[in-house]
Structure formats: structure tokens, C-alpha cells
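Meet today's protein:

…
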Amino acid sequence: MMSATSTLALTHFVTLADSFDKDKVTPGVLGFIVFAVIGGAVWLLMKSMNKQMKKVDFEEQPEDGDAGTTAAASAKAPEPKTS
């Protein structure tokens, strides 16, 4: 059985719930904290990605058929010295 005090307390909550607009949804503080954490994580990931991309050093291969001539020229063995 409910006591008079608990019944009185519940009736106050019901009036507060009726004054709340049920069609309005707000994220509140928790929504802001989650959004801020996701934003910070994206910022840290971008910072790390920039650091890793700066380490990459590569040379592009030529697009036309000159690849065979440059590979043959670089693969040529040095001539032995004769004395």
C-alpha cells in the first residue's frame, strides 16, 4: 500500500511531467559530451594520419612506355676495370 507521503510525491512528479513538452527533444549535457568526445577523437586521428603520411616517401613510375628503358639503364652492371 502506498502511504500519503508517497502519493503526494508522485502527484508532484505527474504535474512536472505534464508541463514537459513531449514533442520537443533536446540532447542535453550528455549529448554535448558525446559529441565533444567524438570530435576530439576525429581530431586526434587526423593529427596521427598527417604524421604517418609525412613519413611516406615514394617516387611515381612514369605513365608512358619509358619504364622499360629506365629500368634497363639502372640495371646495367658497372664495367670491370682493366689495368
Observations:
- The CA atoms of residues 4 and 10 lie 10 Å apart.
- The chain is about 65% helix and 0% strand.
- Helices lie at 4-19, 28-55, 67-75.
- The mean pLDDT is 77.
